């Protein structure tokens, strides 16, 4: 039986339940005055859970409140970061009993920061299976910690969606430029920001560079000192920190596990475990090679990309601008293209790269809607219809439906056989994503 102490704590966290007349004022404290609409929609259906995961501080809770404001004041909010709730709300059976006795008028349940629960999946499963007649919205900052307990138990009971930092399209939609010239300028400035400082909500909305750096520093330290040690019980925090720094310098490069292990002073198994944690925490992605059955292809070695350039630049301690003056501008631009793709494609496994044993390489290969699409990233100025040998090699081998060359100078079209070759600048690239993938 849940104690009076727990009931008191629940109603401290959901103060509009005992005082519904104060709901509007209380809700305002959870929503920023400058709210940017997100592409992700929270699908809320009675007797179903909507599980919203993603990186730390990416705006999951804000999006949840925005989606749930219509349910106020008939909303039950459970923040599982609270030590008391975390310790005593382990049993879904007892919670459901309390809900039916005390909160039957509630129209929705919001379970925030669920990664702090030891049996997160079983708790949500128990609520959904109890058929309370309300939707359940769940947020968690680490899908690794959540997925290990929900992969089977929530099958058929939940819809999962990932929220990432702002996309370029979300930023431009918010700015709402009045004309083409204003839009081009907005894209140029937003792209520069994304390449240097990334697009985590708090970073983007912080006006000064010093403040942006401080936010990014706190984000990285939270990942290292809080998630790594508390959630994942990593003993060698020094090795974990060292690995992050090494990965930041290898964006777009193929991973050498043995070299990483040697540099970090741990074994290959530990490096593999750390990479899994970083990937499931939405910090990095191991982009794996596309293998189409050609014997001359590499078939096993992944490349490394970061979900956000700001996190990467914080790790290398380099926020110098403008981006076109940087020695690593090619890496930053390639990583930006990856970050825009990952925000649009629900299954990360659909983003690959291609490399032959002879050294021909295409930055990204998408397998989308039964079609094959190649993407090459070029930061420099391109001559008209300048198609690389690597691009031609891939097109000749696979005849993809489309091949994109994302660049900073040209928008034009060409054809090679049955392949439509598109040269697109960043603004046209995000339009292409919306038309083709989103």
Measured as a percent range, the helix fraction is: 40-55%
Q: What is the averaged pLDDT score?
A: 90
Low-confidence stretches: none
CA radius of gyration: 23 Å
Number of strands: 13
Strand order of the largest sheet: 7-6-8-9-10-11-13-12
How many structural domains? 2
Query: Kindly, what is the distance between the CA atoms of the first and last residues, rounded to a whole number of angstroms?
Result: 47 Å
| Alpha plus pi helix count | 18
Overall geometry:
globular
Features:
438 residues; alpha/beta; Rossmann fold; 2 domains; eight-stranded mixed β-sheet; five-stranded parallel β-sheet; 18 helices; 44% helix
Word description of this protein:
This protein is of the alpha/beta class. It has two domains: 4-162, Rossmann fold; 168-436, no CATH class. Helix content is 44%, strand content 17%. The chain has 18 helices and 13 strands. An eight-stranded mixed sheet has the order 7-6-8-9-10-11-13-12, with helices on both faces. The chain has a five-stranded parallel sheet with strand order 2-3-4-1-5, with helices on both faces. The longest helix is centred in the middle third of the chain and has 23 residues, at 209-231. The relative contact order is 0.09. The model has no long low-confidence stretch (mean pLDDT 90).
Q: What's the topology here?
A:
Elements: H1 4-13, H2 23-28, E1 49-53, H3 60-68, E2 75-79, H4 83-88, H5 92-102, E3 108-112, H6 120-129, E4 136-140, H7 143-150, E5 158-162, H8 168-175, H9 180-196, H10 201-205, H11 209-231, H12 237-248, H13 257-264, H14 268-280, E6 284-289, E7 303-306, H15 309-316, H16 329-344, E8 351-355, E9 361-368, E10 371-378, H17 389-398, E11 402-407, E12 412-416, E13 419-424, H18 426-436
Parallel strand pairs: 1-4, 1-5, 2-3, 3-4, 6-8, 10-11, 11-13
Antiparallel strand pairs: 6-7, 8-9, 9-10, 12-13
Helix pairs in contact: 5-6, 6-7, 8-9, 9-16, 11-15, 12-15, 13-14
């Amino acid at each position: 039986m849940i104690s009076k102490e727990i009931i008191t704590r629940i109603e401290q966290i959901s103060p509009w339940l005992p005082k519904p007349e104060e709901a509007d004022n209380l809700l305002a404290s959870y929503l920023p005055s400058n709210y940017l609409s997100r592409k992700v929609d929270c699908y809320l259906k009675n007797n179903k859970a909507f599980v919203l995961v993603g990186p730390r501080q990416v705006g999951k809770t804000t999006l949840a409140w925005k989606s749930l404001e219509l349910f106020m004041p008939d909303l039950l909010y459970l923040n599982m970061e609270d030590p008391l709730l975390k310790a005593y709300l382990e049993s879904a059976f007892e919670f459901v009993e309390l809900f039916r006795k005390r909160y039957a008028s509630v129209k929705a349940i919001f379970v925030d920061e669920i990664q702090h629960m030891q049996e997160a999946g079983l708790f949500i499963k128990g609520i959904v299976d109890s058929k309370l007649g309300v939707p359940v919205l769940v947020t968690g900052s680490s899908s690794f910690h959540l997925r290990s307990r929900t992969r089977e138990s929530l099958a058929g009971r939940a819809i999962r969606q990932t929220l990432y930092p702002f996309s370029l399209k979300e930023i431009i939609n918010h700015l709402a430029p009045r004309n083409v010239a204003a839009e081009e300028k907005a894209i140029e400035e937003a792209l520069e920001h994304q390449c240097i400082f990334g697009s985590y909500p708090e970073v983007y909305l912080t006006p000064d560079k010093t403040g942006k750096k401080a936010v990014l520093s706190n984000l990285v330290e939270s990942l290292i000192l809080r998630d790594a040690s508390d959630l994942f019980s990593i003993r060698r925090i020094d090795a974990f920190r060292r690995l992050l720094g090494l990965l930041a310098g290898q964006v777009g490069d193929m991973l050498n596990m043995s070299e990483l292990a040697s540099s970090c002073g741990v074994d290959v198994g530990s490096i593999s475990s750390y990479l899994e944690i970083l990937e499931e925490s939405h910090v990095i992605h191991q982009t794996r090679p596309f293998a189409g059955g050609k014997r001359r292809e590499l078939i096993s070695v992944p490349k490394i990309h970061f979900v956000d350039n700001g996190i990467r630049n914080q790790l290398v301690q380099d926020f110098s601008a403008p981006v076109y003056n940087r020695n690593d501008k090619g890496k930053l631009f390639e990583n930006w293209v990856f970050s825009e793709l990952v925000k649009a494609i629900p299954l990360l496994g659909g983003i690959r790269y291609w490399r032959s044993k002879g050294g021909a390489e295409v930055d990204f290969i998408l397998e989308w809607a039964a079609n094959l699409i190649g993407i090459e990233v070029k930061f420099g100025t391109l001559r008209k219809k300048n198609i690389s040998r690597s691009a031609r090699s891939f097109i000749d081998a696979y005849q993809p439906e489309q091949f994109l060359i994302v660049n900073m100078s040209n928008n034009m079209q060409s054809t090679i056989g049955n392949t439509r070759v598109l040269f697109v600048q960043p603004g046209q690239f995000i339009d292409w994503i919306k038309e083709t993938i989103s």
